[in-house]
Design goal:
By secondary structure, this protein is low in regular secondary structure. The protein is built from two helices and four strands, in the order E-E-H-E-E-H. The chain has a domain of 78 residues. Helices cover 10% and strands 12% of the residues. The protein has a four-stranded antiparallel β-sheet. A hairpin with a 5-residue loop joins strand 3 and strand 4.
């Protein structure tokens, strides 16, 4: 799958998110490419972003920038300690606050610690 976005480094950080834990690229339901963030999608794609659909949660939708493992949406959303289950690289825990931009979930984080899958 192609990786698209703005100023992407080898671990999928981009012009918008470049902290050490920003090592995830995601697919949207509207296209096959991986993007580090929704702002990269908006800048690089010629269409509106569509979150990854719930009925496809068992398909690859997330790329770990640290080890290049692909994860299903379910594996990513259920990952313990916000880390890659393959290599242990930390993922940005703040991403949970806006996961609804990337995945068809019930809603944004309601503080209950539940991913509302």
């Amino acid at each position: 799958m192609p990786l698209r976005g703005i100023d992407i480094d080898p671990e999928t950080r981009c012009a918008h998110w470049d902290d050490p834990v920003d090592v995830v690229a995601l697919r949207f339901g509207c296209c096959g490419a991986y993007y580090p963030c929704d702002a990269c999608h908006d800048a690089a794609a010629d269409h509106e972003a569509v979150p990854w659909p719930r009925e496809r949660f068992d398909e690859p939708a997330v790329l770990c920038g640290a080890c290049r493992t692909t994860l299903t949406a379910r594996e990513y959303l259920e990952a313990d300690d916000d880390a890659c289950p393959a290599c242990g690289a930390a993922f940005n825990p703040g991403c949970r606050k806006h996961r609804h931009r990337y995945f068809e979930v019930e809603g944004s984080d309601d503080g209950d610690g539940n991913d509302d899958l």
